[in-house]
Structure formats: structure tokens, C-alpha cells
Amino acid sequence: MLFNARNNRKYIIPEKQIVPSWLVAWGKVNSLKQNVIWQDEQVAFIPIVSSTINDSATDKFALSSNQQYVVIGDIWLSNRIELLQKLGIEAADFSGNDIQLIANLWERWGEQCLNMLVGMFGLVIWDREQQVLRLIRDSTGARTLYYTNTGSTRWIAPKLRTLTPHHSRELDLIALRDYLCCAFVPGERTLWQDVREIRPGTCLQFPNKNIYSYWQLQEKIADDDKPLIWHSDLLRDLLEKVVREYLPENEAVGVFLSGGLDSSSITALAAKIHNAPIHTFSIHFGSECANELEFSSLVAEHCQTQHHILEITLRDMWEKLPEAIAYLDDPIGDPLTVPNLLVGKLARDYVKVTLNGEGGDPCFGGPKNQPMLINNLYGSVTNQDPLQAYLISFQKCASDLPQLLKPEVLQAIKTEPYIFSQDFNSDASYLNKLMALNIKFKGADQILTKVNNLTQAAGLNGLSPLFDQRVVDLSMKIPPKYKLSGVEEKTVLKQAVSDILPDIIISRPKSGMMVPVQLGFKKYWQREARHLLLNKKAAISPYINQSIIREWLDYRGDTWGRYGVKLWLLVSLEIWLQVNHKF
């Protein structure tokens, strides 16, 4: 249970807030006592259905028509009609769901069908004839899939907490280090030593443990001699196609609208295409804090949406954090977790599907790449290692590790490489190299995971058109000069939507959604944070030097105003550890 310092009571995370998931056991399964939906000598498929959530095991499970393949998974496909056509089936004649569709596709084409799928999925497929189990994740990582990596029985689930009874409570110290640097855990590691995550576009096979990529993010710059308008027209056509596929037929749709270019573009495209009401949702943090409501309201009026504005107080931010953390798999130290959850709950009163603008920065050259580009130009002067510069660019705790981590923890990880190293050694252009890093890791391990878990928790299907595989592929073909050009970011995206958005939205510089955690820790959360982080029995105390946290809470030497973000990262970690240790 999580201690609440203000009133000396414990946080209670209601059972209904934890979204249930299915579970697969592979290996030694003869002694299983769980309720299984399907089992043979080596594998068991186990539905976990909460009585508080209207969920059916059959929605996640299917057998191929020849009974050779058993499939379970979390799936949403945007090209369903096209896939049915490949099978020679009329959409009106097919009564199955997306999981049954994949079972039929696999029976016809096997692994080749993975390159036909467009959407979000985490799949487990058992070949009864070959006795091979496959674990598969969609290309950009919109869905998650975890598995234990030790023991005679391997356990697999789309939710990390579902695996809690089946692994030790030992932390992966490398994952801890990476979380402190990035505010998320990048790559296949999780914060648990005995659990790994399937990477995007990847298939893992048992029993041979072979891992292969069926899709890889690659730079393929094309038509460098063509003008900007040529590339922007291609992008516009693709964006209209993707957004059209994502819109629920004859139903209202929601858009999370910040007023920035990315979410405004999705709003404008949806308004142009959709024949049902569009609800837009924006947030602010009260009168003490700056906001972007001027711009989000302008876009909502321009696109004639039904606009909703939610005020999130600093009290809400602190009190709702344990609930937001409970929905996450690995911890995410992004202050937007709570706003994402709360605006999702508001949206669920009006819609079942929401779109967002996530993906614009990593795919089209957002301004956060500029410091790295400067470092690349002047690296001989600054003498800063590119990988270290990349870690520092997250503006979290990379520079603080020698003082933040206890000596024994620092010693254990000091020679361990960072997962980003291989990408820094690629032959891609420098900007595309940075973008690929952000798509592969920040996209899959923070942004999309956060969107997926928190929208599902609110009872929504949250979709990210700018992270669609086809958009990502196109972004790697567009010449870098049309993405981030000097101080002009996302040039090609701006050109692609220039006719459907007000000029002020196209031309305004990106400011980002600034969550006021600096103000929160200075003025509102001091007492709670001290009790939570400086307690001798704090879950982080075996790993973290609490003396440096005390300095941060006192705001001693905070030249750049970054202590609030670092403290939020640590509070999120402490709550995650406490919430997960109670299970």
C-alpha cells in the first residue's frame, strides 16, 4: 500500500481500475490450476476476466479453421476490409473479430501475413503441428507484450502486472539507470530482472528462442531533387487515408487537442473527413499557470468541433498520480500521465474512440532535436560524447547518476552499455538517426505505451495517426532538409496542412505542454514529497542517495529550473514500486 503523508492513510487502488488481461503459459504446464480456455502438453491459454469489466475471453482468442493455429491477442486493425478481400471474403459475410481474421490469415500465409497487418497488436500464436510458440508485437509498438525469461514455465501477457505472481521482485539495475536518464525504460528490459518485453516489429519463437524482425525502421531517403510541395502532397494524401481509416464509422470521435501543430493537424483532418460529431478536449492547470487555451480554442472554432476544457489542479496532479501509475506497465516519469488519464475519463462521457497528435516530433523533426544537431556541429569544440549528449538531452537525471545512485548500484552498472549505442553507429543522416531513436524507444516505450494504457483505463480506444507505420515509413523517405531546417521545425507537415489550419497555428513555434511540476513541488507538494522520498523505508532507498533528493526538495542550486521534473520522476518511481509490491 502507498503511504499518504498528509493524512497518514494508505492509498487504495480499487480493483476495477486495474484492466485485466489474458495470460499464456509455455513449458511445464501440467500442474496449472488456473481456469484455461485452451491447453495441450506444452502451452495453456488463460483468460483473466474481471467481474467489474465487461470483457469476454472469446474476444481475445481464436482457432484457425483447420485447427492448427491457436491465437490470442490484443488487436485493432485499420485495414480490416482490405485483409478480408485478400482472403476472398465479403465484409458483410464475416462475423468474426480481428483475432479470428488473423487466425485465418496465418493459416493461409503464415509469417508473411505480418507484413499485411496495419494497426496495433500484441499476439501469441501456437502452431500445434510444429509445436512452435510465437510472440509478436506490432511494428511501432502501440501494443505491449511481456514474458518471463527464467524457469521451466514461461509466462506471457500484454500487461506487466499480470506476470507479478510468476517472477521475482529483483530490480534490473540497468533498467533503473535507464529510467533515471529517460523517465521510461527503453528497449527489451523492464524494471523487473526476470521479465522482458517484445520489441516493436519483432517475433520471438519458443522453444529455440529465435528473435527476428519482420519490420525494421530504416532511412530510405527518396526523391531528394523534388521540391517541398511534392513531398508535402504525398504526406497529405497519406494522412487523409490514415485518419479516414481511424475514424469510427457514423460515430462521434474525440481528439485530444493541445493547440500545437500536431494535434491541430489531426483535428483539422478529422473535421474535413468525418461525417459525425467531433469532440475536442483541452486542459489547463489553473490561473497560476500559463496555458494554450487561446490556440486550442481557435482550432476548435475553426474546425467547428464540440470543444471541452478540463481544469486539472495541482491537488489533482498529486492525488491522482497513484491511480495513473497503477495503469502503467513499467513506470513512466512523464508529468503528462495524470492529465492523460483525467482527460480520457472526460472524453469517455462523449466518445469511444479518441485520436491524438503524438508522433509529430519524432517523425517530422521537432525542435527537441536542435540541441543535438548543434552538438553534432560543434562537438569538436564541446568535446562531448554524442551518446552522453543524447542522454542529457532528455533533461532528466543522466548527469546526476554518480551522486544519485548508491555506490554499489553504480558499481554494478558502470560498464553496461546503453541500448542507444547501436543506433548512433548507423549510417543514417544525423537527423534521421535522432528521429529513429525517438521513434523506436521514446515512441514505443513511453508515448504509445502511455496512450495505450491510460486510454484503455478510461474505456477508450486511443489512436495515434502520426505514429501509423505507413506515416513512419514515409517520414524516413522525406529528405531531412524538409523536416527540421535550421529553426523551422516540421516544415513538410506544416506545408501538408497549411490549407486547413489558421496561419497562426502553422507559424507559431512549438512550446509543448508544460505541466507545472516545478510550482507543485515548491508550493504544494513539499510535505508529501519529503515523507514519500526521504522516508528510511522508502522503496527507492536501497538504490538512491536520499541526501541529493533533500537538496532538490530545498531547491538548492536549481540554476536551470529542472528539479521539479527530476522529483516527479522519482515520485513516480517510488509510487510504482509501492503499488507493484502490494500485489
Helix/strand layout:
Elements: E1 2-4, E2 9-11, E3 23-27, E4 38-39, E5 43-46, E6 61-63, E7 69-77, H1 80-86, H2 98-109, E8 119-127, E9 132-137, E10 146-148, E11 153-157, H3 173-182, E12 195-197, E13 202-206, E14 211-213, H4 228-246, E15 253-256, H5 261-273, E16 278-284, H6 293-303, E17 306-311, H7 314-319, H8 321-327, H9 337-347, E18 353-355, H10 360-364, H11 370-382, H12 386-393, H13 401-404, H14 407-413, H15 421-424, H16 430-457, E19 461-463, H17 469-475, H18 491-496, H19 503-507, H20 517-524, H21 526-533, H22 546-553, H23 563-581
Parallel strand pairs: 15-16, 15-18, 16-17, 18-19
Antiparallel strand pairs: 1-2, 3-5, 3-11, 4-5, 6-7, 7-8, 8-9, 9-13, 10-11, 10-12, 13-14
Helix pairs in contact: 4-5, 4-17, 5-6, 8-23, 9-16, 11-12, 20-23, 21-22
Kindly summarize this structure in a few lines.
The chain is an alpha+beta fold and 583 residues long. It contains 23 helices and 19 strands.
How much strand content do the residues show?
5-15%
**Count of domains:** 2
User: For the record, what CATH class of the largest domain applies?
Assistant: Alpha Beta
> What is the fourth-level CATH superfamily of the largest domain?
HUPs
What would you say the CATH architecture of the largest domain is? 3-Layer(aba) Sandwich
Mean of the pLDDT scores?
Answer: 90
Identify the overall geometry.
globular
Radius of gyration from CA coordinates: 23 Å
> Main sheet: which strands, in order across?
4-5-3-11-10-12
Structural class estimated from helices and strands: alpha+beta
| Low-pLDDT windows of residues | 1-12, 50-55
Bin the helical content: 25-40%
> How is the main sheet built?
6 strands, antiparallel
The CATH topology of the largest domain corresponds to Rossmann fold
Strand elements, count? 19
The helix count comes to: 23
From the N-terminal CA to the C-terminal CA, the straight-line distance is: 9 Å
